[in-house]
């Protein structure tokens, strides 16, 4: 360990100890440290972390995550304090300066977007409206059936095509971009091989269009990479592509963030791209002002036509909250401005299973309908409600098996021989059926097959079923919490002694002489020049070249160590 690297290592370790957990987590993420994996598993304390940060490959990685302004300061000698790249004066460490030698990186010049014309703003508003509607459709669809993703975390090609074929996006490429936008803003979240809605996403789809846009734009702003931010706002999007000049992957990522901004209506088309009036407050760090945007968006309706053929026809774009509830008791058959929804026994049963009541549905539909509730629909709701709960699905607390019971024995026999349910492996048990499949799997299989099933909780009460539901945050926001806690604990008391022993270990490993200051009984200190040969049992062994003798010193009496 050279004197310069030793000094830098201790300085960085002390700086890491003083940093908060969030700053440490950001540092580890930037260096692509996987919690529990090498080198994290081998780290004993923050000195080990500092040593890793000073490795040439880690310095190169850190510089690739440094934005243009930081790189310009480091290269030109302008103080810019960082956790692991600068000294106590904020100047680049020697290894960092050497890495930047010969680079010609100037700070970004101040810039502001060109104001959008009326036509450009109109197109941006229309695109924002389409994005909000399509993204909401995707989020709603994941509440019923999560999307599948490949090992890299990307949306599978099959899902891209399916979303386009079902009209939730215009093309597979747009479907992929919308899902990526949902993931970036945490309306969607990946978990294993699936992508599902978050609790925030589930709440977001129930907002009005104005509220949806404001929430999405603000979540986009909060998710922007550090280099694209300017206080609470963001920099001129025209500068985004050059923000991280040493990161080879950045141009593609910058294009994605630019496309997100375009989809949300924060960037308007043109040469160069322009900025609509409603985007400026957000860019400058203020709250969203949606009045101008909403005025350019298509109008929405709050009534539908209920028809005798068990369909509901919306004469325009239905308000989001009404659309979400109506879709909870129907199947939407078209995605055009005049949307069509179809009621079936299965959809009504599903609504009843997820918390709706026959009275609640009638009241909602009466207020929603321009034509009253047709008799066929009234009959369908009443019959479905009467039959609902005829099949009860519960869990046997002793065996863990799923039990399906009903007062209608003929119906149970039908379920038992139903080939569509063969995979559940039903076996007869007196007046009930048993399956090794989970309670939820059995319930939804019966519901999909249009059996009037309810699910019972372990207390025997009817429970509101949620299909798949939301993807919870399984500690993903704090993946480094355990690692940071372990490092802080080991870096607490005895830090000075730990660093002294580390310096002695390095001298032994490198076979270099050091000057050791030893505390004497009278309180004074005596310096010895030693060539350390071993360290163990709380004692240092080394050769004193001046006296030509071997010495053994208690480590507890050593006040300091410095290179010769």
Quick description:
The chain has 564 residues and is α+β, with helices and mostly antiparallel strands. It is built from 22 helices and 24 strands.
Keywords:
about 575 residues, alpha+beta, 5-stranded antiparallel sheet, 22 helices
Question: Overview of this structure, please?
Answer:
By secondary structure, the protein is an alpha+beta fold. It contains 22 helices and 24 strands. It has a six-stranded mixed β-sheet with strand order 16-17-15-14-18-19. The chain is flat.
Distance between the termini: 12 Å
The major beta sheet can be summarized as: 6 strands, mixed
Write down the Rg: 33 Å
Strand order of the largest sheet: 16-17-15-14-18-19
Q: Tell me the helix content.
A: 40-55%
Tally the helices: what do you get?
22
Structural class assignment: alpha+beta
Shape: flat
User: What percentage of the residues does DSSP assign to strands (E)?
Assistant: 15-25%
Q: What are the segments in which pLDDT stays under 50 over at least 5 consecutive residues?
A: none
Could you report the average pLDDT, rounded to the nearest whole number?
Answer: 89
Number of strands: 24
Give the secondary structure arrangement, pairings included.
Blueprint: H1 3-18, H2 21-30, H3 46-53, H4 56-64, H5 68-76, H6 94-100, E1 114-115, H7 118-144, E2 147-148, H8 157-165, H9 172-184, E3 188-191, E4 194-197, H10 199-204, H11 209-223, E5 229-230, E6 233-234, H12 250-264, E7 274-275, H13 279-283, H14 291-296, E8 300-301, E9 305-306, E10 311-313, E11 317-318, H15 320-327, E12 331-332, E13 340-342, H16 345-353, H17 358-368, H18 375-387, E14 391-395, E15 402-406, H19 409-417, E16 427-429, E17 432-435, H20 439-448, E18 453-456, E19 462-463, H21 481-490, H22 495-510, E20 514-519, E21 525-536, E22 539-544, E23 549-554, E24 558-563
Parallel strand pairs: 1-7, 8-11, 14-18
Antiparallel strand pairs: 2-4, 3-4, 5-6, 9-10, 10-13, 12-13, 14-15, 15-17, 16-17, 18-19, 20-21, 20-24, 21-22, 22-23
């Amino acid at each position: 360990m050279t004197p310069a690297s030793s000094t830098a290592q201790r300085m960085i370790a002390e700086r890491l100890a003083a940093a908060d957990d969030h700053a440490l987590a950001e540092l580890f993420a930037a260096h692509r440290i996987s919690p529990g994996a090498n080198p994290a598993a081998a780290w004993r304390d923050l000195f080990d972390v500092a040593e890793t940060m000073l490795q040439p490959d880690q310095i190169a990685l850190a510089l690739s995550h440094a934005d243009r302004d930081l790189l310009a300061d480091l290269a030109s000698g302008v103080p810019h304090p960082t956790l692991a790249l600068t000294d106590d004066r904020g100047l680049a460490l020697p290894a960092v300066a050497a890495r930047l030698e010969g680079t010609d990186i100037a700070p970004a010049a101040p810039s502001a977007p060109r104001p959008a014309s009326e036509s450009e703003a109109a197109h941006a508003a229309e695109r924002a409206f389409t994005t909000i509607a399509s993204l909401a459709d995707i989020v709603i669809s994941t509440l019923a059936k999560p999307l599948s993703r490949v090992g890299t975390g990307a949306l599978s090609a099959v899902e891209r095509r399916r979303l386009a074929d079902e009209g939730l996006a215009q093309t597979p490429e747009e479907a992929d971009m919308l899902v990526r936008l949902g993931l970036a803003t945490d309306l969607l979240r990946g978990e294993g091989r699936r992508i599902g809605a978050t609790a925030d996403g589930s709440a977001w789809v129930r907002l009005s269009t104005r509220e949806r846009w404001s929430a999405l734009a603000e979540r986009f702003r909060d998710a922007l990479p550090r280099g694209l931010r300017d206080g609470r706002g963001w920099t001129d999007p025209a500068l985004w592509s050059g923000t991280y000049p040493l990161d080879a992957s950045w141009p593609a990522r910058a294009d994605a963030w630019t496309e997100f901004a375009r989809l949300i209506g924060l960037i308007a088309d043109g040469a160069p791209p322009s900025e609509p009036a409603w985007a400026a407050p957000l860019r400058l760090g203020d709250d969203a002002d949606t009045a101008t945007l909403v005025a350019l968006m298509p109008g929405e309706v709050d009534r539908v036509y209920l028809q005798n053929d068990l369909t509901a026809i919306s004469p325009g774009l239905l308000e989001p909250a009404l659309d979400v509830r109506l879709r909870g008791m129907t199947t939407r058959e078209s995605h055009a401005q005049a949307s069509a929804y179809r009621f079936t026994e299965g959809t009504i049963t599903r609504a009843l299973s997820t918390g709706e009541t026959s009275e609640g549905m009638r009241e909602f539909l009466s207020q929603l309908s321009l034509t009253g509730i047709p008799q066929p629909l009234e009959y369908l709701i009443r019959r479905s409600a009467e039959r609902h709960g005829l099949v009860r699905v519960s869990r046997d607390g002793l065996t863990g098996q799923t039990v399906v019971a009903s007062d209608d024995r003929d119906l149970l026999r039908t379920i038992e021989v139903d080939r569509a349910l063969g995979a559940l492996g039903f076996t007869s048990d007196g007046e009930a059926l048993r399956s090794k499949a989970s309670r939820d799997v059995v319930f939804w299989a019966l519901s999909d097959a249009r059996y009037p099933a309810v699910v019972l909780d372990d207390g025997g009460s009817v429970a509101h079923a949620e299909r798949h539901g939301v993807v919870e945050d399984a500690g993903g926001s704090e993946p480094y919490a355990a690692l940071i806690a372990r490092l802080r604990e080991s870096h607490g008391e005895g830090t000075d002694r730990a660093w002294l022993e580390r310096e002695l270990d390095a001298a032994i490993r490198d076979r270099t002489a050091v000057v050791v200051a030893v505390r004497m009984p009278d309180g004074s200190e005596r310096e010895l020049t030693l060539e350390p040969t071993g360290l163990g049992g709380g004692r240092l062994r080394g050769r004193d070249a001046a006296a030509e003798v071997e010495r053994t010193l208690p480590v507890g009496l050593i006040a300091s160590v410095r290179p010769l």
